[in-house]
Amino acid sequence: MRTDDSGFDTIRQEHRDIRFPKNIHNAVRSRQIEFFAGRLLAKRALEELGSFQTDVLVGAHREPLWPSGFVGSISHSQSIICILILKSNNLLVGMDIEHRIASEQCESLSDVLSHNELNLLAQSGLSKVESFTLGFSVKETLFKAVFPKVKRYLDFDQSTLLSFDNNRCYIDIELHIDGISHRYSVFFVDLGIFVITSLIASDIW
């Protein structure tokens, strides 16, 4: 879904059941529109999946709380909102959308990818900007997927890109947590000005 300020107040009146938590109620208008659009998109998807409850509440860490029997992920970048929802109780689900970062931002993201990870992506033909954009998105997707399990935020060095398959559009990544490693495959779609990454995996460790 693309977000747009025009008509926001009218649409919000039509969906008064989508309530703003305190931090969103006090936020700038663009953040309110962003939050509302994500919840509206999630509501429509949950209705299509047959859920009797369509509210997506906000957890203690501001994470989305999905109705029982459903798992999902919400992401936004500039004016685009994406969601991924599945009817399940035992899956890890994560998704992220990232617009291509500006080249001058690469230095500020130096803690996202290690030297070896940058080499892995560079050897696959990606530019520095493409590498940082995709690498950041892949790690964000992994962190979103495992958050309901670990209940805490993770540092970028707690995950390692292992392999890159540009033909089948996935990256293998390993999560290091509590002395144990878990390997996942994160799929990606490169649409030029932005990339979308997603992960669906069993939550059994």
UniProtKB/TrEMBL annotation:
InterPro entries in alphabetical order: 4-PPantetheinyl_Trfase_dom (IPR008278), 4-PPantetheinyl_Trfase_dom_sf (IPR037143), 4PPT_N (IPR041354), Enbac_synth_compD-like (IPR003542)
Keyword Transferase listed: yes
All copies of domain 4'-phosphopantetheinyl transferase N-terminal, residue ranges: 24-84
GO MF assignments: transferase activity
Catalytic activity: apo-[aryl-carrier protein] + CoA = holo-[aryl-carrier protein] + adenosine 3',5'-bisphosphate + H(+); apo-[peptidyl-carrier protein] + CoA = holo-[peptidyl-carrier protein] + adenosine 3',5'-bisphosphate + H(+)
Keyword line: Enterobactin biosynthesis, Transferase
The keyword Transferase is annotated on this UniProt entry: yes
Superkingdom of this protein's organism: Bacteria
One Pfam family recorded for the sequence: ACPS
Pathway assigned to this chain's UniProt record: Siderophore biosynthesis; enterobactin biosynthesis
Family assignment from sequence similarity: Belongs to the P-Pant transferase superfamily. EntD family.
The protein's assembly and partners: EntB, EntD, EntE, and EntF form a multienzyme complex called enterobactin synthase.
PANTHER family linked to this entry: ENTEROBACTIN SYNTHASE COMPONENT D
Function: Involved in the biosynthesis of the siderophore enterobactin (enterochelin), which is a macrocyclic trimeric lactone of N-(2,3-dihydroxybenzoyl)-serine. The serine trilactone serves as a scaffolding for the three catechol functionalities that provide hexadentate coordination for the tightly ligated iron(2+) atoms.
UniProt name for this protein: Enterobactin synthase component D
Organism: Acinetobacter pollinis
